[in-house]
Fold:
Amino acid sequence: MQAFNYAKPGSVADAARAAGATDAKLLAGGQSLLAAMKIGMAAPAALVDLGGLKDLQGISVSGGVVKIGAMTTHAAVAASKEVAQAIPALAALAGGIGDRQVRNRGTIGGSLANNDPAADYPAAALALGATIHTDKRTLTADDFFKGLYTTVLSDGEVITAVSFPVPEKAGWQKFKQPASRFALVGVFVAKGKGGVRVAVTGAGNNGVFRAKALEDKLAASWSGSACDGVKIDAKSLNGDLHGSAEYRAALIPVLAKRAVA
Structure:
């Protein structure tokens, strides 16, 4: 691993200033960034550690909204009785991320900012119509994700929290790669005030996406059988040694059906 400068700021404002410096990276849980640095895929000149910012941690439920601080770990979300009561599918998703070490170090803000195409949280954010709060603005999940490892975040912009509207119904299913536990395909379904939303991770050429064909069917009939016969175009999906694009296309409606059930 290359040499780098290290800063551990005491406030979000200080973190934003430090991260705005040339070639600096924000460090949340480090489960993706540090691994990339070890193999030479990332080489920032400086790391700005958010670990000391306690005001970026915590979970609250109020007014039909679950709000989670950006530095809240996956393990904390999975163990939260408030999350389990309000959005059981979100707690289940957090509990299935990686292994115990990853869940105790990785954070929701780090996952969303990294936007790995096979990560779980982007599917939850997109399906639930989440709002991502930063030190500069608020962003809808529909506007936040822009492609593989790409979001609308600007240099030095810090995610502070994520708000999830409590849905009427929601479900999550993941067909995981057994070694990494990343999603070969993951499907999150939700029915709420904004209608039916279905988000897919692990399959898209450009990362997480909404499956409109499934949304239309489930809007007409919220039942597992509504997913039967829905065809997903494999041309927009990725294939690799773990599964072809056609295989992933076939999995999406199957997992959606299980999530609805």
